[in-house]
Every structure is written in structure tokens, then in C-alpha cells.
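User: Structure please.
Assistant: Input sequence and predicted structure:
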Amino acid sequence: TNITKGVFTCTREGYFKFQVYGTTYVGGRLFLGIFTNNSLVASLYSHANSTHATAGNAAIVHLKVGDTVQVKTKGTYPVTLLGNHNTNTFTGIELAPNDCVSDVVKTGLI
């Protein structure tokens, strides 16, 4: 995992939940995506003319050892994230290692 560049690298196969939230400066916009191995798994967009815009999204993914997850911009829109109030987050949590997943997950019901 490279915390400086915002890249999570999986060290144990399993199911993980990742979420991202962002807030723009007044009049700004954000168009971001959660990417697993450079493939888009979730996106978020927000824009407001006279106030801060906020957006968030989450994804549950199955990862193998060495897979990466990161948040990147989408499209050609400039991203204007508010940078001084800890309002922008990218978090992840392991839900279950691969060998402990219930039959409900394995059958694709969630």
C-alpha cells in the first residue's frame, strides 16, 4: 500500500469494501472513480454553482493478492476538492478473507 499516492495493494485474497467522499470548493465539481487494477468499479459526480458540492460512493470487490485499488479522476473535468477541512476521504475495510465467505456471497446474492 502506498499511502502517499493513495494506492491500496491487496496482501490477502478476500472481499473488501472501499468508499470515497469528496467536497468541492464553492462552484467546483468533482468527477471521480474507484478503480480496481485500472478498471472502473464505481463513480461519483457532483457540481454546484453557488455552494460546495459533495458526493460519495462505495464498492464491494473481490481482490486477489497484488490487486490494486485507487481513486482517480474521470473524464476531462478539472477536480476542485476542498483541501483544508478533512472532508475528502478514501477508506477501505476487509469484509471477509476468501476462505470465510458465506454461501450467500459465493452464489452472487449480494
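DSSP finds one helix and seven strands in the chain.
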